[in-house]
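Data deposition worksheet. Section B asks for the primary sequence of the deposited chain exactly as it was used as input, without tags or linkers unless they were present during the calculation. Section C holds the resulting structure in token form. Section D is free text for depositor observations; keep each observation to a single sentence. Incomplete worksheets are returned to the depositor.
Section A, Depositor: J.P.
Section B:
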Amino acid sequence: MVEKLKGDETMQLDVLVIAPHPDDAELGMAGAILKLKAEGLRVGVLDLTDGEPTPFGSPAVRSRETAAATEILGLDWRQNLGLANRRLEATLEARFQLAGVIRRVRPRWLFAPYWVDAHPDHVAATELVEAARFWAKLTKSDLPGEPHHPERIYHYYCVHLRMTPQPAFILDISQEWERKLAAIACYQSQFVTGRDNTTPTFLDRLRDEAAYWGKTIGTAYGEPFTCREPIGMASLRNLI
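Section C:
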């Protein structure tokens, strides 16, 4: 069940995925979310905007779709920061709001979009996440809650450029693929409208991409991730 925070309440998440729009977390890393949940970690998603307007969506429709996807993912927490879609900027006010959320949900790791993208909202989202992470640790500030500094920011790929990423690691999501696809399919106003008769469809291409990343690591499906900082390892045991 997704938890709701009230007033000055805090909670402890292991992972907070920050998405510019509802559906970006699902597209970029639903497999990882499902795997993290299966391993017993507490995972939340913060959507920065409602993603509207879109040609076939509305705030009410998008909210219902997000709730359905959230149920499939089994998230512990999900909220929307209420920033402006198509006008997302890494302003001081937005940084204040996001840093406050980070201090309240206190994640160990943050996940943000890859920092190179054609979509201005995605670029602004990552700039905002990195700045808010720094602010969240500040003492002697007017931010709500106690200082908190997530250990790392990892970046998922949900980009609008025709590019081949060079990820730092690829996660095997073979067991999670069908549920990832089901979570994405909840956003029918965006991807399953029946209005697009092109072949292959968007979901076909998404499957092909996941299969490509799986092939690079010898599995059926994969999700790529990167990080601006070196990634430490305690063991080689889980390498594939």
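Section D:
Residues 15-226 form a domain with the Rossmann fold fold (CATH 3.40.50.10320).
The CA atoms of residues 31 and 176 lie 5 Å apart.
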